[in-house]
Amino acid sequence: MGIDSPIFHALHQVLDAAADDKSSANIPSGAYVRDAKAMAATPADVKEYPNSYAFIVDMPGLKSGDIKVQVEEDRVLLISGERKREEEKEAGAKYVRMERRIGKLMRKFVLPENADTEAVSAVCQDGVLTVTVPKLAPPEPKKPKTIEVKIA
């Protein structure tokens, strides 16, 4: 890991931003970086069925009350939650190794035009969240209008 590594480059940008307020507009906020990391680290599958879409997201260690499923403006489905570190329950116990993921889990999906955003449902079982978004019925084809011809 030399001086040209991406870590040093990012650190250099942050330090420059602190010295020069004008360049801080180009550096993403801490919340943006945190959300981007959470989205990159949250695996998901998307399935399309004849009548619905299914979004399957791993949410390990979260109870259903800790998970938020929202439909935002512009048909964006937002799935989020946060797994917090367990408190030390036993006196004198300390972590020797910590590998399980803690922190924010989040994914955003842009829903297609035919998604029924008013009928979204979500079920969490064994750490796997399944969000079902029904499809709207296709519009009926317009039938030609028959006009009665009257004799004058």
Task: Give an overview in words.
By secondary structure, the chain is of the alpha+beta class. 16% of the residues lie in helices and 30% in strands. It has helices at residues 6-19, 30-40; strands at residues 44-48, 52-58, 67-72, 76-83, 103-110, 121-125, 128-134. The strands form 2 sheets. The protein has a 4-stranded antiparallel sheet, with no helix packed on it. A 3-stranded antiparallel sheet has the order 3-4-5. A hairpin with a 3-residue loop joins strand 1 and strand 2 (52-58). The longest helix has 14 residues, at 6-19. The radius of gyration is 25 Å and the shape is elongated.
Could you give the count of β-strands? 7
Order of helices and strands: HHEEEEEEE
What structural category arises from helix and sheet content? alpha+beta
Q: Count of DSSP helices?
A: 2
Strand order of the largest sheet: 1-2-7-6
Name the poorly predicted regions. Answer: none
Note the main attributes of this structure:
152 residues; alpha+beta; four-stranded antiparallel sheet; three-stranded antiparallel sheet; 2 helices; 16% helix; elongated
Layout of helices and strands:
Blueprint: H1 6-19, H2 30-40, E1 44-48, E2 52-58, E3 67-72, E4 76-83, E5 103-110, E6 121-125, E7 128-134
Antiparallel strand pairs: 1-2, 2-7, 3-4, 4-5, 6-7
GO biological process, one term: response to stress
Keywords: Cytoplasm, Stress response
Subcellular location: Cytoplasm
Quick summary of this structure?
Keywords: Cytoplasm, Stress response. Residues 35-152 form the SHSP domain. By secondary structure, the chain is of the alpha+beta class.
